[in-house]
Amino acid sequence: MNDFSGKTALVTGASSGIGESFANLLAKSGANLILVARREDRLNALSEKLQADFNVNVEVIVKDLALPNASESLYQQTTSMGIQVDVLINNAGLGTHGSFLDMPLAKHHQMINLNIIALNDLTHFYGQDMAKRGQGAILLVASIAGFLPVPKFSTYAATKNYVLALGEALGNELKSKGVTVTTLCPGGTLTEFMDVAGQQIDGIRSLAMMSSDKVAKTGLKALTRKKRVIVPGWLYKLGISSLRLFPRRLQAIFGQLATD
Ligand SMILES: NC(=O)c1ccc[n+]([C@@H]2O[C@H](COP(=O)([O-])OP(=O)(O)OC[C@H]3O[C@@H](n4cnc5c(N)ncnc54)[C@H](OP(=O)(O)O)[C@@H]3O)[C@@H](O)[C@H]2O)c1
Questions:
Q1: Range of the domain at 37
Q2: What is the Å distance from ligand 1's center to 91 Cα?
Q3: Is the CB of 38 within 6 Å of ligand 1?
Q4: Residue 2 banded pLDDT, cuts 50, 70, 90
Q5: What is the pLDDT of residues 210-226, one digit of tens each?
Q6: Is 236 annotated in the active site?
Q7: pLDDT exceeds 80 at position 260
């Protein structure tokens, strides 16, 4: 793992899964951290562990990023604490499985607010500061669901399509300003995500699940190598690169088969 010592990284969704793995790996490589999520007990426990194990500074900020203006309030909080964010890990995300029409609009809005608005706005706020300094790194967590239509995960997949499109464009646009933007597109990963999404993973699909540590490690490696887009795991890489051989109508059938 590359050395992040002396850098400060802000990790959203650090209370579990891939975000917690990011926090562990970054602290291990010497980064000071700002951990953000809603579950304060989890964040505090992680903060204590990381400070004890790796002797780094860790701040906990409890925030519901799906609420209006949450990103601006987070940015103002870190600014008033005098913190300079060198690495932004935009990881917090939420998926809900089910019929588009039967799902309450509030669920759709929660996904759009968290997966799109919060990620977009944090990238805007911290990206401006990084561009002024002429250096910084931003990682956006999308999903393989961002590459194809996924019935029954339709809004979630559409939000991740946004993240992927934004990340690819900013990877190009911000390069000249010294800001690296990497978009991480995981496939199935063993976290709380599927429980929260209300979907069971069983049978053959459970064989393709990756660990959150592997996914986060792949993401950080790609970030330090200034890669634009990274899909962890050879199976998922192969699947995504073969998608373009098929028409979108067929891709939607694959998307449904993968999640039903
Ligand atoms: N697991 C997979 O198979 C998979 C595949 C592709 C992409 N991803 C993406 O990976 C990212 C991390 O997910 P994960 O798999 O690690 O799932 P996870 O274990 O459920 O973690 C999600 C994290 O997001 C935080 N979060 C959720 N709602 C939030 C809100 N309103 N405000 C602030 N934080 C919030 C959660 O913390 P609190 O509940 O404490 O707020 C938690 O720390 C997501 O963007 C997800 O879309 C996951």
A1: 8-259
A2: 7
A3: yes
A4: low
A5: 999 999 999 999 999 99
A6: no
A7: no
